[in-house]
């Protein structure tokens, strides 16, 4: 094949023409197609659509060739002599050559001592990247990041340092600025490209390690802060050295961030060139530091990714990390992720223009400059903790992460009651929502823990269960702390008691139909947990009037959790006993979420029920009857069973009086063993009260 020489400037002109065509097609093709369609035109507009879809890639490829030609020209090769450069034409080769050139260009830019030239080069690379992102060219993105990962991880601090030049007035006016608006836009582009390459699976283990193990983890975290949401990043990586389990890049970054915090290796740069701040700067300085807290950045992204959240909280540092985020270390204030500390003055009396994150529990040098407490954003933390226990339950690796995360969270909650019997301030609502959802997800396990004499806190794959699912167990101290936290709000306390009671009725209905697991007594376990709730709630000694709020909330929840909430079990009988675990059986009925309502129907039902039944009777009767109706053991009467819900009205009172002697068979036992409906009611009430009495006597 003969070779053809081209003028690099002509190649650049061709690239500009294709970019203009790309923009013109993007702006006009949708209008043309819609207009033609509205008139019912027979003209085939498919060609226009095809041209529009091809234009970004064609423009990007030609711009890459122009850039390669310009790079060759900059080498001062004599075009009239022997100097030749091979500019490929096929897309794959162009991608590889251009990505290599741009990776080298970024490396050169970060080493350039001329701030203006370095910034111009970085912006040129940003433009090229935008073209490839718009074209969906993940092959180019992967090739670029696999070669430029160390420089990309260092980009934020490079941009910050490039902004540090200037006169004293400019420096003073920007004393709270870490990254300019232009810097943020550059990082947004590089973050978006990194996330796209990551999610496409084109990053090598070495590239992942270079980002996650960046010497400046703050700089790397800014790619996440200004990049896309956590859901746009990969949920796992190729397995390799330093990442044998193939956990996600976001999870690796968070794990290494925690290690760097313990080592005091996290620096938050401010400036430029200003190190002394006055009292008038206090609020703005604190806000600037909080906005650059890498923990808040990564926890937010992890919560949006979910896989990253459970990989972190269920990983090797999950326990210590939960301790730091939820409790206190070495007598320090609770829930800190450290302090922002400005170092002391040097021999010329100048303070550094950066702040080091010092971990909780570490003493601070008395010669330090400004010191600010660092508490991660509580909403981001709550979403992260909620996501950390959200993996589908079962025997998968993800289920294992989630189970360990649940144990780590519940093991590190602060006791609601101090040693001197004072109630501590509660957690942020976002955190309590996460704790509540974790409780509901692991309700069968926690119920078994309520009567577990072993007093063990762990997450294990039980070898005797079908499929070896992951289960958790809580020691009695951890269980008390958990239930106290959940009981601190009267409405939440009442609602959760209602959920436990409703599940008790569900489990009893299943058991009466012969659905059991390894001779476990889930109805009694749930009743036991109900009794523990009563004990821990009473220990909080609420203010006058709140007890009634709790009672109303519990009865509201019981009345509201009808068949629409709990659904129906897919199979019952001996087959289910052998195939489904208790967790799977309970999950088949769904997990009722805490209701947010105040309906007249519920309020009226409670008012009528209280005229003919006591609250204690209703709390046991309603879930008992609901569970038996679900399993077709009891045929409901439409006068008191409406919209899948038991309504404790006068008709229900009459029905109970007439049918409390109804014989109910327990198919879980050998032979034909029956007991009256009223006897099952009495047993359920005794189970609830027995655990409460026993635990109260011990404590």
Could you please describe the fold and organization of this structure?
There is one protein chain. With 699 residues, the chain is mostly helical. It folds into three domains: 3-88; 170-379, no CATH class; 389-687, no CATH class. It contains 30 helices and ten strands. It has helices at 8-38, 46-73, 91-111, 115-134, 138-153, 155-162, 168-173, 181-200, 205-212, 217-226, 249-263, 282-291, 294-305, 307-313, 318-326, 378-388, 397-411, 429-441, 443-450, 476-487, 490-512, 522-539, 546-560, 563-566, 574-579, 582-588, 600-612, 615-630, 650-659, 677-698; strands spanning 267-269, 338-342, 354-358, 371-374, 458-461, 470-473, 641-642, 645-646, 663-665, 674-676. A four-stranded antiparallel beta sheet has the order 1-3-2-4. The protein has a two-stranded antiparallel ribbon with strand order 5-6. The longest helix is centred in the first third of the chain and has 31 residues, at 8-38. The protein is globular.
Structural class: mainly alpha
Count of spatially separate domains: 3
C-alpha termini separation? 91 Å
Percent range of helical residues: 55-70%
Give the strand tally.
10
The residue ranges in which pLDDT falls below 50 over 5 or more consecutive positions are 75-82, 563-575, 591-600, 691-699
Mean pLDDT, all residues: 81
Q: Tell me the major beta sheet.
A: 4 strands, antiparallel
Strand order of the largest sheet: 1-3-2-4
Based on CA inertia axes, which overall geometry fits? globular
| Global Rg | 32 Å
Beta-sheet strand percentage?
A: 5-15%
Give the count of helical stretches: 30
């Amino acid at each position: 094949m003969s070779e053809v020489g081209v003028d690099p400037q002509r190649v650049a002109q061709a690239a500009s023409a294709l970019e203009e065509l790309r923009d013109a097609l993007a702006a006009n093709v949708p209008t043309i197609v819609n207009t033609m369609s509205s008139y019912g035109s027979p003209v085939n507009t498919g060609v226009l659509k095809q041209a529009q879809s091809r234009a970004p890639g064609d423009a990007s490829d030609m711009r890459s060739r122009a850039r390669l030609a310009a790079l060759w020209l900059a080498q001062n090769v004599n075009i009239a002599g022997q100097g030749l450069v091979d500019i490929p034409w096929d897309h794959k080769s162009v991608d590889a050559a251009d990505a290599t050139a741009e990776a080298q260009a970024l490396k050169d830019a970060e080493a350039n001592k001329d701030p203006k030239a370095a910034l111009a080069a970085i912006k040129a690379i940003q433009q090229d990247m935008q073209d490839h992102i718009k074209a969906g060219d993940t092959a180019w993105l992967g090739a670029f990041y696999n070669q430029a990962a160390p420089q990309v991880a260092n980009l934020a601090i490079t941009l910050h340092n490039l902004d540090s030049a200037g006169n004293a007035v400019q420096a003073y006016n920007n004393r709270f600025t870490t990254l300019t608006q232009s810097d943020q836009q550059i990082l947004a582009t590089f973050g978006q490209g990194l996330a796209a390459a990551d999610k496409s699976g084109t990053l090598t283990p070495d590239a992942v390690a270079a980002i996650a193990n960046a010497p400046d983890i703050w700089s790397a975290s800014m790619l996440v802060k200004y990049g896309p949401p956590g859901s746009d990043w990969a949920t796992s990586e190729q397995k390799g050295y330093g990442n044998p389990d193939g956990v996600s890049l976001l999870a690796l970054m968070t794990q290494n961030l925690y290690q760097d915090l313990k080592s005091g290796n996290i620096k938050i740069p401010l400036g430029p060139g200003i190190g002394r701040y006055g009292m008038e700067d206090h609020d703005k300085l604190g806000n600037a530091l909080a906005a650059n807290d890498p923990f808040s950045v990564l926890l937010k992204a992890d919560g949006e990714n979910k896989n990253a959240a459970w990989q972190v909280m269920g990983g090797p540092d999950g326990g210590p990390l939960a301790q730091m985020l939820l409790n206190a270390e070495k007598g320090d204030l609770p829930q800190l992720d450290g302090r922002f500390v400005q170092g002391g003055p040097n021999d010329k009396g100048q303070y550094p223009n950066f702040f080091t994150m010092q971990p909780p529990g570490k003493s601070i040098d008395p010669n330090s400059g400004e010191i600010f407490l660092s508490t991660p954003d509580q909403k981001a933390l709550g979403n992260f903790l909620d996501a950390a226990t959200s993996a589908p339950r079962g025997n998968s690796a993800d289920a294992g992460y989630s189970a360990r995360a649940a144990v780590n969270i519940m093991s590190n909650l602060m006791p609601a009651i101090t040693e001197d019997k004072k109630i501590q301030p509660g957690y942020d609502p976002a955190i309590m929502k996460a704790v509540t959802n974790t409780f509901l997800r692991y309700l069968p396990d926690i119920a078994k823990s309520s009567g577990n004499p072993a007093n063990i806190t762990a997450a294990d794959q039980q070898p005797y269960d079908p499929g070896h699912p992951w289960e958790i167990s809580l020691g009695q101290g951890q269980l008390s702390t958990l239930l106290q936290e959940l009981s601190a709000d009267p409405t939440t306390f009442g609602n959760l008691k209602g959920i436990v009671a409703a599940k008790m009725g569900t489990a009893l209905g299943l058991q009466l139909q012969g659905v059991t697991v390894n001779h476990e007594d889930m109805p009694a376990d749930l009743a036991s947990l109900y009794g523990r709730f009563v004990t821990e709630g009473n220990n909080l000694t609420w203010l006058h009037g709140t007890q009634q709020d709790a009672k109303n909330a519990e009865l509201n929840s019981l009345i509201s959790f009808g068949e629409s909430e709990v659904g129906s079990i897919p199979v019952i009988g001996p087959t289910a006993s052998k195939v489904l675990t208790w967790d799977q059986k309970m999950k088949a009925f769904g997990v009722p979420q805490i209701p947010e309502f105040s309906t007249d129907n519920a309020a009226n039902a409670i008012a009528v029920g209280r005229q003919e039944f006591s609250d204690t009777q209703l709390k046991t009767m309603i879930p008992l009857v609901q569970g038996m109706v679900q399993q077709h053991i009891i045929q409901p009467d439409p006068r008191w069973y409406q919209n899948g819900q038991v309504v404790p009205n006068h008709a229900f009172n009459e029905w109970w009086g007439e049918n409390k002697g109804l014989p109910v068979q327990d198919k879980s036992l050998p032979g034909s063993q029956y007991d009256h409906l009223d006897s099952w009611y009495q047993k359920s009430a005794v189970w609830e009260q027995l655990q409460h009495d026993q635990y109260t006597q011990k404590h």
